[in-house]
Every structure is written in C-alpha cells, then in structure tokens.
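Q: How do we represent a protein-ligand complex in a form that can be generated token by token?
A: Start from the inputs.
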Amino acid sequence: MTDARAIPTDPRSTARLAEAGYDYRVVDMADADQARPVTQAVARGFLGEEPKPEEIAEIAAAMEARRCIGVFPHESVAGQLPVGTVDAWVTPLTIAGGEIPMWAISGVTVAATHRRRGIARNMLEGELRSAAAAGVAIAGLTASEATIYGRYGFGHAVPVAHISVDTRRAGWLAPHADGAVEYIDRERLAADLGRVHEHSRASRSGQVPGWAAKWRKIAGLAAGDSKGAAVRGVRYVDSDGELRGAMAYRLQEDPDEFTASLHIHHLAAQTDEAERSLWSFALQHDLVTSVDAQLRPVDDALPWLVRDQRAVTMRVHDHGWLRILDVPAALSARTYRAPLDVVLQVDDPLGFAHGAWQLVVDADGSASVTPTDAEADIRLSVADLSSLYAGGVRATQLFAAGRILGEAGSLASVDDALRTERAPLLGIWY
Ligand SMILES: CC(C)(COP(=O)(O)OP(=O)(O)OC[C@H]1O[C@@H](n2cnc3c(N)ncnc32)[C@H](O)[C@@H]1OP(=O)(O)O)[C@@H](O)C(=O)NCCC(=O)NCCS
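Then emit the structure tokens for the protein with coenzyme A bound:
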C-alpha cells in the first residue's frame, strides 16, 4: 500500500494558496510542537472543546500514520494554529471480488475566520491530484454535510441506515443460536471490535479497515472521554468458543421511569448467527424500551428478526463517498455479476476520469476498460459513476432522478452487472 506521507504536497494548490497568502505544507505529527496546533485546529473545526494535553498526544500518535497538511497564513509564527487542515492515508477499500487501494481523506477543516475563501477547494483538489500522482485510482471520505463534496467529483456510494426499535412492540422471532453472549471489559471490547471488523470487512463492498485508536474511542477509552465509563461491551462466541461478534453500547436511563434506551455504538459480526445474537441481546434486554444503532447496512436482517416489523424504523442516509480518479484501474479492479459491453461517457471537470470508456465484462465477471471513440450508451458525471461503483445505488435510479442519460437496456445491463451480493456498508466514520 502506498505511504501517503511520502507524496509531496500538490504543486498547483501550493502555488494557488501561496498567491493567496498561505503556506500549504505537510506537518510532522511525530513532532509534538507541530502536532499540537494541528490537533487543536481540527478539534475547533469540528466544534469540539479545547483538547487536553493527553488527548492531543493520543490523537497525534494515531495521526502519525497519515499525511497531515496544514494551511498557515504567511505571517503566522511557530505554534499558531493552521487555518486549514486535511489528512490522508492509503487504505484498502472492499469492492466486489476483493479490494482496491483508496486515498482516504479526513480532518477537513477551515477556521471559521477564513471560510469561503477557497481554502477547502485548494486542499481537496490538492488531495485528488496527490492521490492521482501516487497512482491511487479512487479517493474516499465520510462527510459532515452531504452538500460539500459533490463539486469535487465525489459521489454518495455507500448508504447506511440508522435503525431505531420500539422493543416493547417488536417481540422476537429469530432462532436461538448455540453460542454465548458474554460481557467484556472495555479494553477487551476495543480489541474484539477491531478483530471482528478486520475479519468481516471483506464481506461487504465499501468497508475500510479500522485502527486501534478508532476502536478505543468507540469503547469509551479515548483520553478525556468523560462519558467513557458509560460504554459497555459484549461479545458473541460461537459453540466452538470462537469470537464472532462484538458490540459496544450505552444505556441511558429515563429519569421518570425505571427504564432505559440502549444506544449501540458499534455492532460488528462475522456471522449472521453472531449478528442475530447481539441484536437479540439488545432487543431483549430487561428494562430497555428502545434500541438504536447507527451505520447499519440497508439490508440489515433486523426487521426480519422481530415479530412486529412496524416496531423498527430505518432511516437511510448518505455515508461513504467515493471519487474515481482512474476509470480503467477502478472499474477493472472489481468483479461483476453479469456480462456487459457498454460505453460510458464520463464528465469530470477536474479531468481525471473524463472521457469515453468501453467497459467489457466477460462471462467470468472480470472487466477490461479502454478509451474509445464509439458513441456513448450512458452519459454521466464522475460523481454518479463513483456512486454506482460500490453497488449502493442503481443506474436506473439515477436515470429516474434525471442525473444520468442512457437507454433503458443499457441501464438495466449496468445494474445487473454492478449489483453486489449484499448491500454495501461502511461501518465506521473516518
Ligand atoms: C466545509 C469547510 C471545510 C469548507 O471550507 P471553505 O474553505 O469555507 O470552503 P471553500 O471556500 O473552499 O468553498 C469551496 C466550495 O464549497 C462550498 N462550500 C463550502 N462549505 C460548504 C458547506 N458547508 N456546505 C456546502 N457547500 C459548501 C462553497 O460555497 C464553495 O462552492 P463553489 O466553489 O462551488 O462556489 C468549512 O466550512 C469547515 O471547516 N466546516 C466545519 C468542519 C467540517 O464540516 N468539515 C468537513 C468535514 S467532512
């Protein structure tokens, strides 16, 4: 996997930001004096409190693995907070048939004092050019707002569901599993969540690996987490004693009643049996009247586990965003479920993916992609192509929305070929 830290800052963004009065440079997160202001700026950018020294140290240590960039006014002095931040690393993205290296982008902030002056645009375009220069075919991110990244060619690719359950109404129908659900302490929880996620992330397109600090945060172990002690953990071991699932959750008592809501922070499962057992633990917990869970797949089995499906509410929303940079490399990296021969005319204002591409899928599901002068069957933006890539949305849906153009036959063939066995998922924020 490419080490993003070895890739220099993008010359075009460096020049543009310099003209506007800013230094755009990679920050060494192993150097505490450089890491501190960047960490403080990111916390401030995401509306957080001032981080304490131990929080800064912990965050900076986790960020050492990433290429962290700060944008500093020319006149700024040592220790001054950057007015823009972004970080990136190259990580595997699960796709049909395997995985592809993805340029993951995170920590995008611009100081409220310097907003809407083009700093984010230069940082984002800089990341995309850096990724392309490093030979990475696709970029990805999760977004604080759904309206920010389409302009850079990102498409919403991995929808997820926020599930809420009225447990008094839901009941339970699913078969009882042979394994056992066990309480674990939070150190064990962090380790088990990481292990199960790592073993299960290949089963759905859109997933990326987690990292130790991520699991510690979910388990309530991050430095300075005043509510960390409220996090509880359970795991599921199968009848052979093998770890197959883990769940972090928090109980919130209703002060007027002797009841509580159970909020699932993360439910990771390697098997359907483990998933059912952890859902069962949550839904059948004594004194719990409601359960909710974030970042669940849109085809979660949950509604089918209960007696009364009307007790389950699923709110689907955007979560994983992808941006194809190299059409032949990205489209030929995944496998397909049906043969296909289609010409895609891709519009990419930033140029990376622009052009007409012939996508041919063999009977074995492998693809070849070549530039072509042939007439297009489907015309679409790079954002919409990126949305289709993980199988999380259908071409016919985008056509119905007036976003893409094509004949009904071509659209249906694309849908047959690109669909995935299970709905894509991205189970974490990054
Ligand atoms: C989102 C954020 C990074 C934008 O920074 P910025 O430097 O003000 O953005 P720019 O001036 O470069 O704007 C570039 C474009 O994005 C648009 N834009 C900026 N912020 C936007 C927002 N929050 N929602 C929708 N569009 C936005 C601008 O209108 C501009 O559009 P145009 O070039 O197509 O005309 C900044 O507002 C911020 O730090 N927000 C809080 C933290 C956050 O949410 N970060 C994103 C994490 S995923």
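The CA atoms of residues 196 and 372 lie 44 Å apart. The chain has a mean pLDDT of 98.
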